[in-house]
Design goal:
Mean pLDDT of chain A: 89
Shape of chain A: globular
Number of strands of chain B: 4
Order of helices and strands of chain A: EEHEHEE
Low-confidence stretches of chain B: 1-7
Largest sheet of chain B: 2 strands, parallel
Strand content of chain B: 5-15%
Radius of gyration of chain A: 14 Å
Number of helices of chain B: 11
Helix content of chain B: 40-55%
Number of helices of chain A: 2
Order of helices and strands of chain B: HHHHHEEHHHHEEHH
Helix content of chain A: under 10%
Oligomer: heterodimer
CATH topology of chain A: SH3 type barrels
Strand content of chain A: 35-45%
Mean pLDDT of chain B: 88
Strand order of the largest sheet of chain B: 1-4
Number of strands of chain A: 5
């Protein structure tokens, strides 16, 4: 599966509630960041957790968020960042 | 305190582990001494020695450092350290950037390099504060990150494992790789400390 987002692309994490084993932390859902790198392709943990071990591998990204975009009241330095690994099916293009 | 005593047995799986272990001991399948010896063995075998070697080599050999930052798993393999199916991402501290590792979802940790994760790494307080107020958290570890330095927090949410390449301490220029490795602490490779020369 060819990665949809290149490094440097601005993306938004989908804002959805999903039950079961999900590895997209809630604190970044709906937040915007930038693809820092493509980590490779891995099996979807949501399917693995349900016992499906032959599912497709999907691209995994490291997305870099500005701390101030994640926490509006963040009181560290303005350049501080938070990098989170996110699977492609949780990412949307962010045009603005 | 025995190696298997939990100070904070506040999770169901810890109660389960304790109940199962105590039952095995009561039934004579195992002795507490055997359990302790096994735990000690795991700690010894899996201490931070591999991580120390990786960092010392990176300090001593700029070409290795470049390969390590480009592909941590491949560079570790050069030293005979197998990372496995996971991928190692090495993040470098510089005068401009400090890095901190956390896993907010559970307690993912580069165990193949640093051994067993310390209890604090698995605590809810660390896992939440590392992303929410990392500078205040680090100050409690005794590390003041200068406001001019960028603080990068890395949340190990999926298939990557992270290692911080700390800054080589000033004054260590004459040390060989073995002596350098001895300076490197587990905490510095998680990003809650800097590497210091002995006073």
């Amino acid at each position: 599966m060819t990665p949809r987002f290149a490094p440097g692309t601005r993306v938004r994490v989908a804002e959805r509630g999903v039950s079961g084993h999900v590895r997209t932390p809630r604190y970044v859902r709906g937040k915007r960041g930038v693809v820092e790198r493509i980590c490779g392709a891995f099996r979807n943990p949501e399917e693995l957790a349900r016992g499906r071990r032959d599912g497709d591998v999907i691209p995994l990204y490291r997305v870099r968020f500005a701390q101030r975009d994640v926490w509006p009241d963040y009181d560290g330095s303005p350049g501080d960042t938070l990098d989170v690994e996110i699977y492609e099916h949780w990412l949307e293009g962010a045009t603005e | 305190m025995s190696a298997t005593t939990h100070e904070h047995a506040d999770r169901g799986d810890e109660f389960l582990e304790r109940a199962f272990r105590e039952l095995l001991i009561e039934r004579g399948v195992l002795t507490q001494a055997e359990v302790d010896a096994r735990v000690e063995f795991m700690y010894e075998r899996e201490g931070a020695a591999y991580g120390q070697r990786v960092v010392a080599r990176a300090w001593a050999d700029p070409a290795f450092r470049a390969r390590l930052l480009a592909d941590g798993s491949a560079a570790a393999r050069e030293l005979g350290i197998e990372i496995g199916a996971l991928k190692l991402v090495v993040v470098e501290n510089t005068p401009q950037v400090h890095n901190l590792i956390v896993c907010t979802l559970c307690s993912c940790y580069p165990r193949m390099l640093l051994g067993m994760a310390p209890d604090w790494y698995k605590s809810v307080a660390y896992r939440s504060r590392a992303v929410r107020e990392p500078r205040a958290l680090l100050a409690e570890f005794g590390l003041q990150v200068d406001a001019q330095r960028t603080l990068r927090v890395h949340d190990s949410t999926a298939d990557m494992r992270y290692l911080v390449l700390p800054m080589r301490p000033v004054g260590s220029e004459s040390l060989d790789e073995t002596a350098l490795a001895a300076l490197v602490t587990r905490d510095s490779m998680v990003g809650v400390a800097e590497v210091q020369l002995p006073a």
